[in-house]
Amino acid sequence: MSDYFEYRHTVGFEETNLVGNVYYVNYLRWQGRCREMFLKRLAPDVLAELYDDLKLFTLKVDCEFFAEITAFDELSIRMRLVELAQTQLEFSFDYVRLDPAGETLVARGRQRVACMRGPNGRTAPAHVPEALTRALRPFAPVLAGGPA
C-alpha cells in the first residue's frame, strides 16, 4: 500500500488560460476534489455525517509551482496526512505529471481543515470523527525512529 491517496486527473481546455497553461486556481480545486474522492472511496461514513451536521472548514491552502502543465496532461494528485490534531487536519498534495518517460513533480500544496459541528451561525470546533481517523491511518506520517 502507498503512503498517499491518489486522485488521477486529465487537464481540460477549460482549466487553461489564454497562454495555454493551467490557471493557478485549478490546483486548489484539485486539492478539494482529491479530498472529496478520498471521503467517497475510503470514508463514506464521514459523508453521511456531512449530510447531518459535520462541517469541514478549509482554514488555509497554499500551492508552490515548479513546472507548467497544459491541456491533456495526465496528473496524479497525491494527498498525504501531515498532521492529525483533536479538531484539525493538515494535508500535503504533490501534483505529478505522468508521462511515458516518467513522472515530474509540477507543484506541491498544503491544506489545513477544521472539523466543526452545529447549525450555521452556531458552529463549534468538533473532534475529528473516528471514521475519518481510521480512514487516514494508512496515510499518516512515519516518525523517524518509529515503527514503519
Automatic annotation (TrEMBL):
Keywords attached to this Swiss-Prot or TrEMBL record, sorted alphabetically, are:
Hydrolase
The lineage's top-level taxon is Bacteria
Record Gene3D superfamilies: Hotdog Thioesterase
Question: Does the record carry GTP-binding as a key word?
Answer: no
**Record-level Gene Ontology MF annotations:** hydrolase activity
Task: Give the enzyme's EC designation.
Answer: 3.1.2.-
Record's keyword annotation contains Hydrolase: yes
State the name under which the record lists this protein: Acyl-CoA thioesterase
